[in-house]
Structures are given as C-alpha cells and as structure tokens.
Amino acid sequence: MNESRLDVRIEGQPGAIPARAFLEVLSTAIDLLDDLDRAEQPSAKLPGRWLIAELRNESATAALRRAGFPESQSPLRLVDGIGQLGQSEGLP
C-alpha cells in the first residue's frame, strides 16, 4: 500500500450500491484522514486537500490522495487503527 493514498471500497453488487452510502463513506474517510493529519502535525498548515486519485465504478472504489502533502502517514495510520479495532475492544 502506498502510505499517502487510501483506497476506499464499499462491498456489494456492482450497480446496486447506493450512491449516497458511497458518498457518506468517502466523507467519513476524508474527515478521519484530516483529523489524523492535524494530529500528526498540529502546528503545520496542511497544504492542499484530499483528491480522488482513481475511481473505479465496477467495485465502488475511490483512491484518495492528499495534494501537496505526499508524505502524509494518515492513510496508513487509519488502516492500522481500524485493524486494531477489529482485534481488541479498546481504542488504538
């Protein structure tokens, strides 16, 4: 996985995934990534914004990357944190 890119995918039958659900998942993912970026560099003004680097309709997948901040570790931290939540009851 590229550490500065996050692939967001919704499981489901192609053509049957509600667009609003996909947009809500993307919005939540972007909010979490922004929060992680701010926590990682609290005094820095983060350049750019999250962009769609790739969009695949057949699998309801969007690849997000932050423009102007390629060294962001937030996607990796988000994936690791979600993995930890799946293994324990406490917050990572």
Chart the SSEs and their pairings:
Blueprint: E1 5-9, H1 19-40, E2 50-56, E3 61-66, H2 74-87
Antiparallel strand pairs: 1-3, 2-3
Helix pairs in contact: 1-2
Describe this structure in words.
The protein has 92 residues and is an alpha+beta fold. The protein has two helices and three strands, in the order E-H-E-E-H. It has helices spanning 19-40, 74-87; strands at 5-9, 50-56, 61-66. A three-stranded antiparallel beta sheet has the order 1-3-2. The protein is globular and about 45 Å long. The mean pLDDT is 77.
Ends distance: 20 Å
What spatial order of strands do you see in the largest sheet? 1-3-2
**What class do helices, strands and sheet pairing give?**
alpha+beta
Unreliable stretches (pLDDT < 50, length at least 5) are none
List keywords for this structure.
globular, 92 residues, 3-stranded antiparallel beta sheet, 20% strand, alpha+beta, single chain
Task: Give a brief outline of the structure.
The chain contains two helices and three strands. It has 92 residues and is of the alpha+beta class. A three-stranded antiparallel beta sheet has the order 1-3-2.
